[in-house]
Amino acid sequence: MTAIIEQINIQEVAEHLQLLQSEFNKGGLLEHLRAKPLLDMEVNDGDITIFFELDRDTDLTVVFNTEYDRHTLTDLSVRHVEVDSDEGVYEIDEGDHSAMVLEGKRIIHDAVHYKLLDEDSAIDTDFYHEVYA
Asked: What own/partner pairs with CB < 8 Å and gap ≥ 24 does 77-80 have?
């Protein structure tokens, strides 16, 4: 398990989220998500969880704490990042989470904008000017 812990870090997770989010603009992710999800989101009262594959052997789970103002999602923070690979399951905490929060906000904003969330998970966001300024 040590080899994976040394290879996967917060920056790599943020970069992969950025790659996934950039596919929205090309229409690729939008089409894939409608047909077969590349990532899955679970929206709860106190958090939003994003599940996705880093590669064929490694799945990642990013749990964001959420802050709302009158039913509008206004902010996120990283609760934890879990890596599930052939070598085991572990959490990574070390590193600057700001890039991951920004990409999480973009993905959540785009999922709301493109109506990819089911009715039970429907939320409003206040991220557009922050993430696309």
From this structure: 77/101, 78/104, 79/47
The answer to whether the Cα torsion of 33, 39, 40, 44 is positive or negative is negative
Two tokens at 87? Answer: 């070598």
Whether pLDDT at 22 is above 50: yes
pLDDT, average across residues 35-42: 67
